[in-house]
Design brief:
The protein is of the alpha+beta class and 271 residues long. Helices cover 35% and strands 26% of the residues. The protein has seven helices and 14 strands.
Length: 271
């Protein structure tokens, strides 16, 4: 078996294990907790489902690849400089999950020496899975996908996200949205699950997506899926992404410069 095929099979199985945990709590009920007691916000939520999903994924990956490191949202602390690194989000779209909106995902990526090799994003409610292998293209439930072909913002939908900040970053996002509307886009969509938003760029539903702050587990898998589908992804200033908290702009490639001209102008660091 090609080593990348083995990694993809492991990532797919790990995502299904995490998804099984999420679906059990989805059916049986889950108690959400806000992070305000630890200095967070009352709308920044976590639950036993997040933690158990991450543990199930991490335990499996460690059993298969004992020398690999793991970086995850709920406590896995692998180094971004590791030779072999798994980057996992056990529940992306926590607020959707909390309110029983069936739009959330498990996101898993494997990086070798800082370069994305495999990415999997799974919506376990709908059993919709996006996958990519570096140099091998991107797929949706086994079918190859491509970004859309729009060459003008006026021909497309744009996705966006809001970080938990409700001050300057929120105002920057709204200002960018206003300018996108000024370019006669078909509309703005904000679904609250960045990994799936990136996949919507990859499959051609969005011409582009932007958010001014995401963590690496939010975009690690989706970034590879976008690029393997023919798209482009950078930060909001047009610079290459690293595995750090950052802004993100993804597009079908044709629209990238137009998007960056807007997102850079309204970037919170320029506000």
């Amino acid at each position: 078996m090609n080593p990348n095929d083995e990694l993809l099979a492991a990532a797919t199985h790990a995502a299904s294990l995490g998804g099984d945990v999420l679906m059990r709590y989805w059916r049986d009920g889950v108690q959400m907790r806000d992070k305000s007691e630890n200095g967070g916000k009352t709308y920044d939520l976590v639950s036993d489902a997040d933690v158990e999903s991450e543990n199930a994924i991490a335990n499996y990956l460690r059993s298969e690849f004992p020398t690999h490191e793991i970086l995850g949202e709920e406590g896995q602390v692998g180094s971004v400089d590791a030779e072999h690194l798994w980057v996992i989000d056990p529940l992306d779209g926590t607020n959707n999950y909390a309110h029983h909106v069936p739009h959330f995902a498990v996101s898993i990526a494997y990086y070798h020496r800082g370069e994305a090799v495999v990415g999997v994003v799974l919506n376990p409610v709908r059993q919709e899975q996006y996958t990519a292998v570096r140099g091998g293209g991107a797929n949706f439930t086994g079918t190859p996908i491509q970004v859309d072909t729009a060459t003008s913002l006026s021909k497309t939908l744009i996705g966006c996200g809001f970080y938990y900040d409700r001050g300057a970053m929120m105002r920057s996002t709204l200002a960018a949205v206003e300018e996108f509307f000024g370019n006669d886009i078909h509309g703005i969509r904000r679904f609250g699950t960045a990994s799936l938003d990136l996949c919507q760029v990859a499959i051609g539903q969005f011409g582009g997506f932007f958010e001014y702050e995401l963590s690496p587990w939010d975009f690690a898998a989706g970034a590879l899926i976008v690029t393997e589908a023919g798209g482009k992804i950078t930060d909001a200033m047009g610079q290459p992404l690293t595995l750090a908290k950052t802004s993100v702009v993804a597009s079908n490639s044709h629209l990238h410069e137009d998007m960056i001209s807007i997102t850079s102008r309204h970037h919170p660091q320029n506000a």
